[in-house]
Amino acid sequence: MNQLTGAASRVHIAIRRAACGAAATALMIALAPPPPAGAQAPSRPGTRGWTTARTGKWVLLGISVGFGVYALSHSQTAERSYDRLRGLCQTQPARCTLTNNRYDDAAAEGFYDRAVTNDRQARVGILGGQVTLLGSAALFIYDLRNGGRPPDIPYPPAALRAQAGRRLVIGLRVPLSALGSGPTGR
Predict the structure, then answer these.
(1) What is the rounded distance in angstroms from the CA atom of residue 96 to the CA atom of residue 84?
(2) What is the pLDDT of residues 129-151, one digit of tens each?
C-alpha cells in the first residue's frame, strides 16, 4: 500500500489530532466533577446554567460535524483517485491489466490504493460522526428533563360559569359516564 505523501500526510495527521483532541475534551467535560456548592452563584428558579449534559450535547454535535467534514474530505479524495484510475484505464487500457488482483502498472495501483485507503478513512469518519451524533441526540433528549413536575394549572371545578368583561367565557362540565364506554355507547 502506498504511503500518503507530503501535504496530504500532514493534513491527515492534523485531522486525526483534532479529532482526538475534541474527543478528549468531550470526555473531560463529561467526567468533570461539579463545582463545589459554595462557589456557585445563586440561580433563578427554572434556570440550570451550563450543566455537563448541556455542554456535552453541543460538544458531541461539534465533533459529529468534524467527523462529517473529515469523511467528506476523504470521500472526495477517493473519488478523485477513482476518476484518475478510470481515466487512465479508458485512455491506456494496456496499463490497467491485473495480475493476482493487483494492477501491473505502478501508477494505476497507486490510484487504486489511494482510493481504497481514503474510502476506508471516509467510512471511519462516517461511523464516528454517526456515533457522536447519536450521543449528542441522547444528551439533547436527556437535557429535556427539568427535575420536577410541571406546576399545576388551577381550574375552577364549577359545572357552568359565565364571566363578563371584554369577552364572554362559558364552560360546561360533562361527566364521562354520560358519554358511554365505547363506540356502541354501552
Answers:
(1) 12
(2) 999 999 999 998 888 876 555 56
